[in-house]
Every structure is written in C-alpha cells, then in structure tokens.
Amino acid sequence: MRDYLVIETAAGADPGPWREGEAQVLASGGWTKVAERRRFSVFLETARPPVYRHLPGAAGALIGDAFDAAAARRGVGAALDLLGLGVDPDQIAERLVTQAFGRYVAILDGGEGRVRVLRDPLGVMEAIGWRRGPLRFIASRLPDLPQLWPPDLAIDFDRLAAILRQKNLASLICPLIGVVSYQPGVLSGPDGQGARLWSPGGFARRPMANADPAALRTVLDGVVAAWALGRQGVFCEISGGLDSAIVATSLARTRARLLYGLNHSFDRAEGDERLYAQAVADQIGVRLEVVARAPLRLDPAKLTGAAGGAKLNYVGGDPDHDADLAQRLGAPGVEAMFTGRGGDGVFYQPRHPVLVRDVLAGRAGVGRLRGLDLLARRNATTVWRLIRQGLAAQDMTAGLGVGMFLTQKACGEAQRHPWLEAARTLAPAKQLQILALVNGLSAFGESQRHRAGDVIDPLMSQPVVEFCLSVAAGRLAVGDNDRPFARTAFAERLPQEVLARQVKGDLTTWFARGLGDSLEPLRAWLLDGRLVAAGLVDRARLDPALSVAQLVWTSITSELFVLMAAEAWVRRWEARLAAVRSGAA
Fold first, then answer.
1. What are the tens digits of pLDDT across the range 16-26?
2. Alpha carbon 495 to chain centroid distance?
3. Lower CB density within 10 Å: C or N end of the chain?
C-alpha cells in the first residue's frame, strides 16, 4: 500500500494541537510532510509514497494515481491533466469521477465547515477518518502512532456482525469504534455521508445499442498502458485462465516492462493450468515462473499475520500465496504486479438461467433459438426448464453470509451494499453482474502483498467496468463458450489453447482438503475464539462443521474461510489495542 495521512484543524481554531500532531507524525520517522493547504496538512509514507498533486483553484489535494479516462478509451495511457477540473470543489469532484480513473483520494476544502473527501469510484485507495481532540484525521490506515488514534478506539462487534451476515460488506464497513469509512464515489463529509457521484447501476441502465468488441480491446489497452506508466519492472499472474491471459497480452501490446509471468500450479488436475499458462507466455514472449504449491496448511499464526488492516480482507485465507506475492513484490527491480482479478464479473462468466430474459428479448447477439440452446446446454437442462427458471421472480442482490453459524444475538436483516440496493430495480442478469463486482471489492484491502508493493487489477478499472456494465448481459455471456464478448475482443491475441478452453481451473476441492488437514490447530482457535466469546458465533453450530466429513460432503468451505478471516482480524486488533493499553506499543 502507498499510505497517506491528512491532519485537519477547524477554521479559526488554536493551531497548537495541529502543530503538535504534525510534530508527532514527523518524529516517528516514517512520514514526510508534502503539503499544507489552508487548514490541513498532508503526509506521505517515506518509503513508498503515493503521488501527490495540488488541486488547482481550491484548497485541495489529490493523493494517488489519477489517469485520463478519455485517453484510455482511445487506447492511450496518460495522467490526468488537472487544469481542466475547474476551481469549485463540487465541480472538481464531478469531473474527477467522470474524467479520471485510478487509485486516488481527493481532499476538498470549499472554505465552509470541514473538508470533504472523495475516494475513487472503485475504492482502490482506502480512506478512513477519525477525530482526536480538536483534530480530524483522514488516512489510508491507522498509523503506528497510537497517541493519534481515536480515544475510544475499540472493536465494534455490531458492525462485525453485519459483515458476518453479508460478507461483501467487508469493503464498506470498518468494524472499529471511532473510525469512519469513506465510501467509493461519494463526496463525503466528516461523518462519511454525502452525495453519491458514481454507481454501477447508472451504466447498466444505459445499454449501448451496438457494442463493439474492438472498443473493449482498445479501452483495456489504454487502462493497462496508464497503470504501467513509468514503471521499470512488473510481473503478471498468468493463471492459465482467460482473464489473466487477456491482461498479459495487453501488457505485451502496450510494451510494458514485463519481467516474467507467474503461475501457481496445484497438485490436482483441475488446479494444474501450466499448459495454458505456458501457451500465453510463449504467445507474448515472456518467461514463465511456475510455483508448485505445497498442500495448504493453515494455522492461527499464519492467519493473524495476514490480517490487521482497518477492515477485513479475505485474500489472507491463502497466507502462503499472499506471502509469496509479497516476497516477489519486495524484490529489487519489481515495481508492481498485474492480475486478471475481477474478470469473472466484469466479462460475465456466470451461466445463470436469468440470462434467458436477454435471449428472449433479442439482446444476446446470437439469435433467440440458438441462444436458448446454448444457454440450456451450459446449464445442463432443457430449454423449457431453463425458461421457467429464468423467468421466475428473482432478486440477485442478496449475496451471502455465514448465518448458519450465527447466534440469535448476531442475526438480523442483512444489509445490502449501496450499489446493490440501487440495483434492485435492474433486470436480474445485471444485478448478478453488479453483485460479482461488489464481491470483488474487498480484495483491494490491506494484505501482505499490498503492504509490500503495488497490486494492479486492470479489469477492475473504471473505464473497463463502465464499458462492460453498458453491454447487455446476454451479449457478454451467451455464446459457444463463456465470456464470448471478451473472447471475440481478444481472439487475435490469445493462444488457441486458451481461446477454445471450455472449463476453468477450480480450487474448491484443494482449499477444502487443506482446511480439513489443518483442523487440529484451528478447531480450538475457532471454538474457543473471540467471535464465540463475543456472542456472535454459536459454538454448538460451529463444532460439527469443523470436521473432515462435513468439508467433504457439504459446501461450507467458503463460509469457514470468512469466519477465519473475522477471527484473525479480531485477535490481531485485540492484541494491538492491548499493547497500547499496556504501553508496549
């Protein structure tokens, strides 16, 4: 992560506490003051600082990477020119959301009241806030300066319960008392509330009449070129699947300084994708490094070591993978890694029966009869059953939680992510796409790899997301193979092995087996853990689930990984807060 810290004082307030707070930050040795604007100051971490730019015409600051969206749609990577943003804070915010993309936070001071915060619409850069005395802090994380933390900082188990009821809220909710989470694409005041300037539903409601696959290829090239600007050495994950192959070929086309491709190979036929990954590497002329994964072994120390950010993050569920990527990102000459993450949702991998609505409405691009046949085959059902299932009333915005393990105290109505709440009036197929998008947001959060270097997920970049949201779900999803629109867009670049591949790798069994082999140290850790002690998890319900038989014969592995992430996060924060109280921090 590239961290920042902003200290704000109220207009006309005694500057003494402000200067004292600044002095404490500088005395830590890890931060550099880069700007002072009207009544706030900006600090960047010294080791790996994010980009900082003054916002013209206003007492404002832009922290992070902001690229030109219009240039990306032309296939060109370019930084955003700030001179065209205007001088009014509201106008600046609107234009950032419509003209920029990237990983940024804007601090905007209109001269009245507290400054407002705009976080990039996909939430790639974190933004949290808190108060300490007369000062307000805005940051990417709680710094290792407990004397500046909220005085009442503690774990908020009510917020944590909301995440356990609906796991995709982990990217939205910070379960710490005294800490505010700023939502992506919202121009927020100090309380985290404000005007929503961006939401995926708006693009899904404005479908393009004749979407051109070539335009998708162009915009992805522009996005990749922008993220690669100025980077002297990057590597990319090449899993063997379609999404990472598309990103790898785009990196080669834009002449990024690609050091190597990385493939993790698993000891199961469905997890060994080296053949496809090698075909991609050969196609673009890059060396492929293959990591033969040992069986997954989980223990409390590994899991708590991968936790610790202000929010829950599920990527630590495979701590060995996380540690390997962190080590690679810390190697000399490596400035970033690129992934294909997010493609399943953005390019629309699901074959759900609700797509039949697009087929019947003529929005699939393959003809109604052929579309029905293709979709029925992919769902292994008859056309008539497909139609009956697809036309039934359905709400695809609910998402999933771990309700089967929760106590009565922790149960309640599941909260919907604001993007999903706004999507409830959309057709179910587009609801499903937005649900997949929301589910992927937590992977931007803090982890070992994000602490070590830049992790770039170009398929989750705003211009690509907006384009694919504007294409009818049937065009994206219904064809001879999954993701037919994306396959057509990149057909000339992809090796035939990947282009024609009918199945994708599946690690479900590998993770279930690893969890089963790790149950001995994990059972007591969970059953006598902090979630049980806090009254959120029902020990009697959880106990029988922690058995090899249950993992083999049921599909609860993902729910258990959510519980482990939450348990690890609570324990990490309890230890951190205890150290502060004891004076050890």
1. 999 999 999 99
2. 28
3. C
